[in-house]
Amino acid sequence: MESFYTIQGEGFHQGRAAYFIRLGGCDVGCFWCDVKESWDASKHPQMTIDTLVQEASAFPGRLAVITGGEPLMHQLDALTGALQEAGFETNIETSGSSELSGSWDWICLSPKKFKAPLPGILPRANELKVIIFNKSDFEWAEQYAAQVSPSCKLYLQPEWDKSAQMTPLIIDYIKANPKWELSLQVHKYINVP
Questions:
Q1: Which residue among 75, 80, 87, 171 sits deepest, i.e. has the most Cβ atoms within 10 Å of its Cβ?
Q2: What are the pLDDT digits (tens) for 3-21?
């Protein structure tokens, strides 16, 4: 769908320079998604892996973040291999709803209620980022926290349009459950893509 150089705005790598590659196509369809235009892959031009890596290499940062849509709807072995060969650290942001492919330095799993992650990705996740849209999402987050590895970083992130309502609840929840950390969409506060 698009690719651009910016900073990672959320989660464990928040604040790092990153080249984002947003792939078209999503079969999860969260109603609060902030990139619904990514859902239909046919609306976006295809690019070669060589072109993507060449464009990413024009920038000094060496963190490549593959996101979507749902990036795992695509077979990602060749893309991640080419990025790593060019010196990039590869990160993915995924709901985990499709089979894992690619070679990853960091897997950010953000499970969605609309289509559950496949069990095989849970132990491989380096980061669990749960979007909090309503109070029941805390209990749902704990169900996934119990299934990831003990070394997995745990984040609660307010859904952007409900930040004012959910952030105070998340803060109280983290104070009572300190295994969790707060993730905010910092890029939206500082107006970068």
A1: 80
A2: 999 999 999 999 999 999 9
Does the annotation list 111 as a binding residue?
A: yes
pLDDT tens per residue across span 56-95: 999 999 999 999 889 999 999 999 999 999 999 999 999 9
Peptide bond into 87 cis (omega under 30): no
Tokens of residue 162, six digits: 């409900």
Please state, in angstroms and rounded to a whole number, the distance separating the CA atoms of residues 118 and 33. Answer: 20
Q: Which domains does the chain have, with CATH numbers?
A: 2-189 (3.20.20.70)
Please name which of 129, 134, 6, 2 lies closest in space to residue 68, comparing C-alpha atoms. 2
Q: State whether residue 109 is helix, strand or coil.
A: strand
User: How far apart are alpha carbons 55 and 98 in whole angstroms?
Assistant: 27
Tens digit of pLDDT for each residue in 99-112? 999 999 999 999 99
Q: Is 26 annotated as a binding residue?
A: yes
Would residue 165 be called left, alpha or beta, if left means φ above 0 and alpha means ψ between -120 and 50 degrees? alpha
Q: Flag whether 30 is marked binding.
A: yes
At which residue do the structure tokens 């983290």 appear? 174
